[in-house]
Amino acid sequence: MVALMLASVGCDPVPDSMELRLAHILDSTHPVHLGMAFMGDRLEELSGGSMRVKIYPSGQLGNERESVELLQLGTLDMAKTASSVIENFVPAMGVYSLPYLFQDQDHLWRTLQGDVGQEILLQGEAYRIRGLCYYDAGFRSFYIHDRKVETPDDLRGLKIRVMRSNLSIQTINMLGANATPMAYGELYTALQQGVVDGAENNPPNFFGSKHFEQARYYTLDEHAAPPDVLLIGTHTWNKFSSQQKAWLAQAVEESVEYQRRQWQEATEEALQAVEEAGVTVLYPDKEPFQEAVLPLYDALEGSELGAWAERIRTLAGNSQQ
């Protein structure tokens, strides 16, 4: 059905004027959407109006997995998806779902904007998708309906919603909870009805989704930092001239810096807003959580994913977890 919807929009841009269709699941106030809107405006300016981006937010053209599949088919030009979704297509992306891989924001962005991050972006070309950039999606932390979580023991037995990422599922289970994969759009009702006890996400999403109305404790353990990724289908990319590719690359690069500023502001505002709404924000000792997931790293030794993880850990100036 989604493919039929897109077919009605039109697939093949004319050479002298093209409109690129970009799909994502976030609402139009989200800082990641604002970053992509900025990118679209800059691309139109740089190209003298010959290249435009039409954004379809809020899952209008399907969920994130469906968006990736549409890129592969060539019936969608661009999409924003979480790296945790892309790992189901591009295994190297899975490294970003590993728990406590990044020491801090500086380590995260030196990785994403350095050789490792750029190599991983291009791993998808073999699967007909090309990564253009990473957008800040913050660090993910636990929020629980009615219980403080200050140690891994406090998670024991709790049903925690996670993204459909094998590594995310393993992480949550290893911390003692019961990982429950579920579509993001179903989560508010699931929290309300007690189908799950909690979930994990970054502050802007916790606030913007209104999940704070159902989850009254937010534990900033910051266990993972899977970025959002802007993708383009190779079907579209390969049609561009070198000049068009340069325009897009510049617009994308400028949008990353813009989006990161938007994200920082949104994070600070979200934490303040949920506290004002009565949510208890907790700052636990991360060491017990980090120790609980060490077996996951041990199991990766000698694997391709383990090699990516080791390169990233070395960038922190300390190869020890």
What can be said about this structure in brief?
With 321 residues, the protein is of the alpha/beta class.
3D architecture notes:
This protein is of the alpha/beta class and 321 residues long. Helix content is 44%, strand content 18%. The protein contains 14 helices and eleven strands. It has helices at residues 2-9, 31-46, 64-73, 83-86, 105-112, 115-122, 166-174, 187-193, 203-208, 234-237, 242-276, 287-292, 294-300, 304-315; strands at 18-23, 51-56, 78-82, 129-135, 140-144, 159-162, 178-181, 198-201, 217-224, 228-233, 280-282. The strands form two sheets. A six-stranded mixed sheet has the order 7-6-8-5-9-11, sandwiched between helices. α7 links the parallel β6 (159-162) and β7. α2 runs antiparallel to α11 (242-276). It is globular.
Overall pLDDT: 93
Strand content: 15-25%
Terminal CA distance: 46 Å
Q: How does the major sheet shape up?
A: 6 strands, mixed
